[in-house]
Design a protein that fits this description.
Helices cover about 55% and strands about 5% of the residues. The chain is mainly alpha-helical. It folds into 2 domains: about 5-190 and about 310-355, Rossmann fold (3-Layer(aba) Sandwich); about 215-310, Tyrosyl-Transfer RNA Synthetase (Orthogonal Bundle), CATH 1.10.240. The chain has a 3-stranded parallel beta sheet with strand order 1-2-3. Strands 4-5 form a two-stranded parallel sheet. α4 packs across α15 (about 310-340), α8 (about 135-145) crosses α9 (about 155-175) and α11 packs across α14 (about 285-310). The protein is elongated, with a radius of gyration of 23 Å. It starts with a strand and ends with a helix. The structure holds adenosine-5'-triphosphate and magnesium ion. Adenosine-5'-triphosphate binds near residues 19 and 154. Keywords: Aminoacyl-tRNA synthetase, ATP-binding, Ligase, Nucleotide-binding, Protein biosynthesis. This is Tryptophan--tRNA ligase. It is an enzyme of class 6 (ligase). InterPro entries: aa-tRNA-synth_I_CS (IPR001412), aa-tRNA-synth_Ic (IPR002305), Rossmann-like_a/b/a_fold (IPR014729), Trp-tRNA-ligase (IPR002306), Trp-tRNA_synthetase (IPR050203).
């Protein structure tokens, strides 16, 4: 069986370091591993509209921002197909058919959707499209027959939902769809990177993100202003590293060689954590180190972004070509789905013959 990746992002803002460690960094590795036959990376604008219906301009503007983030991180359009969801109507046809295989109560139980409904104050009036976006995600994943979906931890319920839809579809209509596997980052800190404010998730919607496109100075200011252990007041106070986002970011980004370069008094992060826990290590010093580590990782990304920014029409051309190629694949899957569901009337000559005979009998 072919090995196929599908993953993507909502164009609700520029991508941040949470996206980077949660999914983007791994995508680049997978892309360059040469182990996959096809890789699709989707800009999920239709999904973004499910909770931004009144704000189409935001979605429109962020499509190119997300594309620039991809390219600057090393997504290579020769190896990965970048596509825009809304431009592939086949995905919405699939969604419509999958909706019949899912109950409202099943959607309401989805813990990620539940948390997002709360965060957006949708409790009293949930847009139907928002509640059903996991179904549309199942359409996206299955349209490309994805075997592997590299995403952050919050996407686990979506993958489970997709697998249920695939199993149900195949059991009713016959083996047609491929059941995908989720691929989470192995580094625990990357599963759900917290915000600079210490909140559970760095998110475009929460104003607590360090963006890949932030300038050197913006990154520095955000790092120096980060939430840490609120009880670590004097340098001599013992500090907590658990739940301290500065250390979580270090867990996600820092390698032993960074100590050699920027803070040789420690050999590794464990030594630094031990000192912080004991007391005697100030937040400013830790933050300065984190800043150095982040700048080193972000500098080449920032530089490549500047290059791609010089030729925006080229970026749109990449999106157009990728979307066209992806649409062909989705159309093939839709045709198979309709055949399995026996709704391919005009291609179904046996039906025409059957009825010709039946009626003229
Ligand atoms: P929104 O608030 O609009 O939902 P978002 O920041 O949650 O935006 P998405 O586009 O929904 O971003 O998610 C894109 C991908 O990035 C998903 O695979 C998701 O799991 C991952 N991701 C998002 N935020 C984080 C995070 N803080 N840590 C790790 N992975 C993340
Ligand atoms: Mg999200």
């Amino acid at each position: 069986m072919k090995k196929v990746i599908l993953t993507g992002d909502r164009p609700t803002g520029r991508l941040h370091i949470g996206h980077y460690v949660g999914s983007l960094r791994q995508r680049i590795q997978l892309q360059n591993s040469g182990e996959f036959d096809e890789i699709y990376i989707m800009i999920a604008d239709a999904q973004a509209l499910t909770d931004n219906a009144e704000n189409p301009e935001k979605v429109r503007q962020n499509i190119v921002e997300v594309a620039l983030d991809y390219l600057s991180c090393g997504i290579d359009p020769e190896k990965s197909t970048i596509l825009i969801q809304s431009q592939i109507p086949e995905l919405f046809e699939l969604t419509a058919y999958y909706m019949n295989l899912v109950t409202v109560s099943r959607l309401q139980r989805n813990p990620t959707v539940k948390a997002e409904i709360q965060m957006r104050n949708f409790e009293a009036s949930i847009p139907v499209g928002f509640l059903a976006y996991p179904v549309s995600q199942a359409a996206d994943i299955t349209a490309f027959k994805a075997t592997t979906v590299p995403v952050g931890e919050d996407q686990q319920p979506m993958l489970e939902q997709t697998r249920e839809i695939v199993r149900k579809f195949n059991s009713i209509y016959g083996e047609t769809l491929v059941e995908p596997e989720i691929l989470l980052p192995d580094n625990k800190a990357c599963l759900r990177l917290p915000g600079t404010d210490g909140k559970a998730k760095m998110s475009k919607s929460l104003n607590n993100a360090i963006y890949l496109a932030d300038s050197e100075e913006e990154v520095r200011q955000k790092v120096m202003g980060m939430f840490t252990d609120p009880n670590h007041i004097r340098v001599t106070d013992p500090g907590r590293v658990e739940g301290n986002p500065v250390f979580t970011y270090l867990d996600a980004f820092c390698r032993d060689e960074h100590f050699e370069r920027y803070l040789p008094e420690y050999k590794n992060l464990d030594e630094m954590k031990a000192h912080y826990t004991r007391g005697g290590l100030g937040d400013v010093k830790v933050k300065k180190f984190l800043n150095a580590v982040l700048q080193e990782e972000l500098e080449p990304i920032r530089r490549r972004r500047k290059e791609f920014e010089r030729d925006i029409p080229y970026v749109y051309e990449i999106l157009r070509k990728g979307t066209e190629a992806a649409r062909e694949v989705a159309a093939r899957t839709l045709a198979e789905v309709k055949k399995a569901m026996k709704i391919n009337y005009f291609d179904d000559f046996s039906l025409i013959n059957e009825y010709t005979n039946k009626i003229n009998r």
